[in-house]
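User: What would this chain look like folded?
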Amino acid sequence: MSGIWGNKIKISIFGESHGRAVGINIDGLKAGILLDIDYIKNEMRRRAPGDNEFSTPRKEKDEFVILSGFFEGRTTGAPLCAIIYNDDKKTEDYEKLKNTMRPSHADYTGYVKYNGFNDYRGGGHFSGRLTAPLVFAGAICKQILKAMGITIVSHIISIGEKKDKPFDSVNIEEDVLKIMENKDFPVLDQQSGFLMKEVIAGAKGQKDSVGGVVETAVLGIGPGIGEPFFDSVESILAHLIFSIPGVKGLEFGAGFDISRMHGSKANDEYYLDNGLVRTYSNNNGGILGGITDGMPIIFRTAFKPTPSIGRPQRTIDIETRKNVEIEIRGRHDPCIVPRAVPVVEAVTAIALLELITRSESKCI
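Assistant: Here's the prediction, encoded as structure tokens.
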């Protein structure tokens, strides 16, 4: 099993959902970076379970302990390692499910891949619990990017069939960024948010779950970042976005809708604005040939419904090799999308810092 990603900025995650702790090691950070610990704590709070009306009742403070690479408020240049202890575990909820393969979970694939030796409790290493250390790393990367004038902001664009209005892909106002940063349920239109919450509450009341889509914008990133083909901006972002548990779809710019346009409508025509090259539209999401063009990077991430639901479902007992029925009990989110917003932002920050660091090294 490999838990390592990156070239210039290497990250390595470790731990299981019901183990003693989860954590991350970050290699490649420059020495002397001033870190705002309160900012990191706030990002962790946005993702933490038990913090909103639709979250799992599992109470985890997500307090982190930095073990290395940080001294007197700044990075030292050594690998920065942090752990987050698991305090609120109910392992007994999973003992009876040891051999029962939960539908749409990684129970069966993990069992096959690791010959039954994988930690099945709460999904083990496959669990969304492992996104906590990713948010920690992302909070550091977001601070570094912010110092470069780069901002990452997201909102929930849909839950089920209920939709929020999209970002203006050409001009996103600064006020929008500030509002989204402090919302537990980030939407642009409050009425849309109320309707989305009703959908989640309805699914919860029926012992069911619902999925949704997060829209993300990256502002302030200049042209020329990325490579064609294998190391394109889309490729690197997609690699990390699809590493988030529950992600099943990703589209940039106009996404699949661009396939239904004529070239005359899809093409982003250029103009000069006080010497800056800009485009009238942004159907390509700020990326052309795998390289940033200076417009906002826009993409949307689709999350499937939480697979743990209280309704009867058909499955198998892997030990007896019999067909059985399961009703999953325990503590689960009826919708993971609100808590996934900071995770998407975090991995976006990690990916962009990797890409920018690669570009900088080529200029030295």
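The chain has a mean pLDDT of 93. If you want, I can go into more detail on any region.
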